[in-house]
Amino acid sequence: MQVVGEVLLAKVRGASHRRIAADLGLPADTVRRATANVSWLSECATIMAVRRDSMCAPILPTGTPLGDALEALGSAAAAAARRLGPDVPPWERIAYFTNWRLLSPVARAG
User: Fold this and answer.
1) What pLDDT shows up at residue 20?
2) Which residues contact 44 (CB under 8 A, 6 or more apart)?
3) ∠ CA(22), CA(110), CA(14), 5° rounding?
4) Cβ within 8 Å of residue 47, ≥6 positions away
5) CB atoms < 10 A from the CB of 99, how many?
6) I need a surface site. Which of 3, 22, 63, 102 has the fewest CB within 10 A?
7) Is residue 56 helix, strand or coil?
8) Which residues contact 82 (CB under 8 A, 6 or more apart)?
């Protein structure tokens, strides 16, 4: 799951899908698909954040759709950690929130 997080964070920092693919040893098409459906990701994460903590801090816009999705994912993971404890790594919680859909497009090149 950590590799998915690395892909999303690199993309929001401005790296191209080809650069991310080369750096992480992934197919470029896989990276492109992993970062394509950010509106769904943002919506899912926002719902999970509010379900875990109805009084969570507002999820503020970052200026990009992917940045907004990552902000919402972070909020959801933090809300779950406050409610359930910090024993599960954030990206594993995020995978659970998304019904493991974040894992499906990412496979190492090889």
Assistant:
1) 94
2) 97, 98
3) 20
4) none
5) 10
6) 63
7) coil
8) 52, 53
In terms of Cβ atoms closer than 10 Å to its own Cβ (0-12, 13-18, 19+), residue 52 is buried
Write down the number of H helices and E strands in the chain: 6, 0
48-107 pLDDT per residue, tens: 888 888 888 888 899 988 899 889 888 988 888 888 888 888 878 877 777 777 655 444
List, for residues 6-38, the tens digit of each pLDDT value. Answer: 888 899 999 999 999 999 999 988 888 878 777
Query: Of 39, 53, 41, nearest to 4 (Cα)?
Result: 41
Measure the CA–CA gap between 2 and 5, rounded to whole angstroms: 5
